[in-house]
Amino acid sequence: MKVLVVEDAVDTARFMARALEEAGHSADISHNGTEAEEKARSLQYDVLVFDRMLPGKDGLEVVRDLRKDAITTPVLFLSALGEVDHRIEGLKAGGDDYLAKPYSSAELVARVEVLGKRIDPDSRATLLKLGDLEMDLITRKVFRAGKKIDIQPREFRLLEYLMRNCGQIVTRTMLLEKVWDYHFDPQTNVIDVHISRLRSKIDKDFDHPMLHTIRGTGYRLEA
């Protein structure tokens, strides 16, 4: 799993990341809420581990804003504030679990792994919808505003990934890994070609474009 560790204490963050990596996971570190929110929005993580008290932007506030924008990545809150009211506050803000300090690294890893195994209901959906764009995963048909759109298998896989991550920035690296199963950069324009073809099919004959290029970062599909 890929985990984002958000903790302002540098040594503590390193300790947490090392514990996760020793358990076979990968971990990124952020030391302030503002940076953490940017990463959570632009990169794909399986679990977010948030300290509550953070510089830049409080952990509770970050998670509330992520949930408002339908970012459902599981969140584990860590805090020295371990009273029941504080735990309830964290859960109501959108947290999935709450671990009070001090804690053992083994329990931290265990709780992260449990959250990472939770099934996203959207992953079992057979009909994806975004605005007037519809995608049937069973019949492999795509419609926009009721008009059938013919797309190739790789374009279908690309659109499915974009729809499952709608509203979020999807990077080129994410597309290479999830759509093409590449774990290296092939140094070709394969993404540009397929994005161009897909855009011409789902946007060209319609009033409002849905597939946007985020210069220097990647792409975003939105209604």
Compute the number of strand runs. Answer: 12
Mean pLDDT: 88
Radius of gyration: 19 Å
| Spatial separation of the terminal alpha carbons | 30 Å
What does this structure look like?
The structure is a single chain. This protein has 223 residues and is an alpha/beta fold. The chain has 2 domains: 2-116, Response regulator (Rossmann fold, 3-Layer(aba) Sandwich), CATH 3.40.50.2300; 122-221, Orthogonal Bundle (Arc Repressor Mutant, subunit A). It is built from 8 helices and 12 strands. Strand 1, helix 1 and strand 2 (26-30) form a beta-alpha-beta unit.
Keywords:
223 residues, alpha/beta, Rossmann fold, Arc Repressor Mutant, subunit A, 2 domains, five-stranded parallel beta sheet, four-stranded antiparallel beta sheet, 8 helices, 12 strands, 22% strand
Short structural summary:
With 223 residues, this protein is an alpha/beta fold. The chain folds into two domains: 2-116, 3-Layer(aba) Sandwich (Rossmann fold), CATH 3.40.50; 122-221, Winged helix-like DNA-binding domain superfamily/Winged helix DNA-binding domain (Arc Repressor Mutant, subunit A), CATH 1.10.10.10. The chain has eight helices and twelve strands.
